[in-house]
Amino acid sequence: MRILITRHGQTDWNLEHKVQGKADIDLNETGKKQAEETREKLWNEKIDLIICSPLKRAKQTAEIMNQGRNIPILYDDRISERNFGELEGKRQEEFDFHGFWSYERNLSYERAENIRIFFERVYAFLDEIQQTYSGKNILLVAHGGVSIPVHCYFNGIPKEDDLLKLVLKNCEYATYECKK
Asked: Which of these, 31, 76, 118, 174, could form a disulfide with 27 (CB 3.0-4.6 Å)?
């Protein structure tokens, strides 16, 4: 089984360095072009199923990437972006963005999703799809934040606790071989 993950295309909030979390932001024109380019890069990949975050920016990316392929698409909240709660819509410079993504510090917030709970959500999703779709090639269309626990699931959590270096860029993709 292979799991490919791609981050949604660019949004205006990405350009403004605003955290989107659960905000349901559309792709901008650059984001749509990025999705088209990634569709072309993945054209020869055998993909049996697309599992997508239900947030608009991911759905739009998945729809563009699926044009001409007609691959079934399922939507799953467990790969929606981390809930930024009270930090939603803030620019990354306006709060301790690195602290927010520190697995070691494991900060708690009034409404934002704790990092370890977020990781548990994504890990449980990955455990389930490996059991359910064994032997299949799955494309996940999700978010930069989701790409972090996906990477850590397959490679472990880095000792230096700089998880932000693991974030996929808009419409960048990674491939993981499942050994379970």
From this structure: 31
Mean pLDDT of 15-27: 96
d(CA 96, CA 93) in angstroms, rounded, equals 7
How large is the average pLDDT for residues 82-96? 96
Active-site positions read: 8, 81
Q: How far is CA 150 from CA 129, 138, 140, 177, in A?
A: 12, 13, 10, 12
Mean pLDDT over 165-178 rounds to: 97
Ranges of each domain in the chain: 2-177
CATH class of 2-177: alpha beta
Sequence-ordered list of residues with C-beta below 8 angstroms from that of 133, at least 6 positions apart, any chain: 1, 48, 49
Nearest to 60 by CA among 87, 99, 33: 33
Residue-wise DSSP of 42-82:
TTTS--SEEEE-SSHHHHHHHHHHTTTT---EEE-GGGSPP
Per-residue confidence (pLDDT) for residue 160, from 0 to 100: 87
Q: In what order do the strands lie in the sheet with 173-177?
A: 73-75, 49-52, 137-142, 2-7, 173-177
Main-chain dihedrals φ then ψ at residue 166, nearest 5 degrees: -90, -10
Per-residue pLDDT band at 180 (split at 50, 70, 90): low
**Predicted model pTM:** 0.96
